[in-house]
């Protein structure tokens, strides 16, 4: 599954990403990169485009995204920081530059935002250890690293998975 330090191999990542896409198709999701969500601060809609890539340096997945206003203008870093839900703002203030940063997309070469991968392995190690402890009390089941990770970090930037992914 993943190593002791919470990392995942490139092969496992690709296999789980394929499974994720297949499950999306089976659930009837419209498999597109974009999702519109309401920004309640000024009653506008924001359009998010999400990309998941693998970081060979950190050995973990990375969530890249870009956000546009209704008229197609990309949001700047300050606006993206202020669009982060209130429950994550304290962490954002404490770890601004290692939490959510602007970075060149590794394949597109365009500026995107990313949830920085430096804490991902530690976070996943804790989550997977706890899941392993809980599943050993009942029945042993495989934890899908990618779904677990995405459902943990996605809500920070407006991406929430349907509960059906967890079953």
Automatic annotation (TrEMBL):
Entries under InterPro entries matching the protein: Atg3/Atg10
Record lineage: Eukaryota, Metazoa, Cnidaria, Anthozoa, Hexacorallia
Annotated keywords: Autophagy, Transferase, Ubl conjugation pathway
Similarity section: Belongs to the ATG10 family.
Biological process terms in GO annotation: autophagosome assembly; autophagy of mitochondrion; protein modification by small protein conjugation
A Gene Ontology term for the protein's cellular component: cytosol
Signal peptide: none
Molecular function in Gene Ontology: Atg12 conjugating enzyme activity
Transmembrane parts of this sequence: none
Protein name: Ubiquitin-like-conjugating enzyme ATG10
């Amino acid at each position: 599954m993943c190593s002791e330090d919470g990392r995942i191999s490139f092969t496992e990542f690709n296999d789980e990403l394929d499974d994720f896409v297949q499950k999306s198709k089976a659930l009837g999701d419209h498999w597109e990169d974009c999702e519109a969500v309401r920004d309640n601060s000024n009653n506008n809609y924001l359009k998010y485009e999400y990309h998941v890539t693998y970081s060979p340096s950190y050995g973990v997945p990375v969530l890249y995204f870009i956000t546009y206003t209704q008229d197609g203008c990309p949001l700047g870093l300050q606006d993206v920081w202020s669009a982060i839900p209130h429950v994550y703002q304290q962490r954002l203030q404490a770890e601004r530059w290692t939490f959510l940063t602007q970075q060149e997309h590794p394949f597109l070469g365009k500026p995107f935002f990313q949830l920085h991968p430096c804490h991902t392995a530690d976070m996943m190690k804790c989550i997977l250890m706890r899941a392993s402890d809980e599943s050993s009390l009942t029945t042993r089941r495989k934890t899908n690293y990618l779904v677990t990770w995405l459902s943990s970090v996605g809500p920070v930037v407006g991406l929430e998975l349907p509960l059906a992914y967890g079953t």
